[in-house]
Amino acid sequence: MEKWDVFDKHRNKIEKQITRGDEMAPDEFHLVVHVCIFNSKGEMLIQQRQPFKEGWSNLWDITCGGSAIAGDTSQQAASRELFEELGIHYNFDKIRPHFTINFERGFDDYYLIEYDVDLNELTLQAEEVQAAKWASKEEILKLIEQKKFIPYYQSIIAFLFEGRHHYGSIRL
User: Fold this and answer.
1) Which parts of the sequence belong to the Nudix hydrolase domain (predicted)?
2) Arch. (CATH architecture) of 3-116+123-164
């Protein structure tokens, strides 16, 4: 049973934890992280969810993501999720998320990293991931159009690719 820390709307941790699936009060939020790995060719590592995975079964998704568990910092959650889902060790201790998207029940931190990963060295988490591959922005947008990828806003996918080399929303 996965436990989550609970935050207020200003992202201050409050003295409360909940179990995944528990109802949260309207003024309570939790932390989610996503990691997007790009190779030196500018492609993103994407993963395909298992057919038996609840929510978005069989669809392709960005590199990895999930909820922070109780006690995790955002960086620790990113490192744990990346290792659990794909077997990749990466140290997030000295980096910040590139951006955060607020959603109805929480905060979603996005990490954008460049890292040439050999697909043959991945260890896919059998409970969650059935496949992984490199994909261009155009390939991902086509998969979204074909309803084979989680339906992210196209502008978010474009921002992930365009913003991967720097922080902020201004071209440098």
Assistant:
1) 28-158
2) Alpha-Beta Complex (3.90)
